[in-house]
Amino acid sequence: MFRNLVLVGFMGSGKSSVGRVLSSLTGFALVDTDTLVAREAGQSIPVIFQKQGEEHFRALETKVLQGLVGRIGLIVSTGGGVVVAEENRKLLPQIGPVVWLDASPEQLYQRVKHSNRPLLQTADPRRTLKELYAKREPLYAGAAAIRIDSATLTHRQTAEAVLAHFQRHAQQQ
In what order do the strands lie in the sheet with 98-102? Predict the structure, then answer.
């Protein structure tokens, strides 16, 4: 059906949580690119952003994605901004089909407003989120094989919708 699945989407879209459910349903290993970046850097994502900046973080992210190409049996949960770098958008489908988990900017804001997301440490995090979402939305759309609206679904329902899509696709071939 698929060798791996790659989950993309804005912060708060459910990539990590849905990834855990997909991992349990498929038996595939869950890989979180943010965790791999932090391990590679030897420091947390907020510290990377604070000390080296977003550009350095994106370079580490690209390196991590390059290391996933050719592997099999993975559910890959990516960071929300993975699609910002053109190189990453090229690498993602080489890893596996790209699934965009989406919700409205307001729903996403409600999910992340109490978190410590580096890019939302601004005077107006709601506005910042909406601006970032507007910039990234076409990048997610361009990178993804499918889009799943996770706004009203549980994590399990979202995971089941992803798997149902690929089962239907496999039957049509």
Answer: 29-32, 74-77, 4-8, 98-102, 146-149
pLDDT in tens, 53-107: 989 999 999 999 999 999 999 999 999 999 999 999 999 999 999 999 999 999 9
74, 68 Cβ separation under 8 angstroms:
yes
120 to each of 55, 86, 130, how far by Cα in Å? 16, 23, 11
Which letter, b or e, does each residue of 147-165 get, where b requires 16 or more Cβ atoms within 10 Å of its Cβ?
Answer: bbebbebebeebbbbbbeb
Amino acid at 135: K
Query: Can you give the residue range of the structural domain that contains 21?
Result: 4-172
CA dist 155 to 16, 50, 85, Å? 10, 31, 27
Q: Give me the CATH number covering residue 102.
A: 3.40.50.300
Between the CA of residue 20 and those of 128, 132, 159, what are the distances in Å? 28, 26, 9
Structure pTM?
A: 0.93
* Number of domains comprising the chain: 1
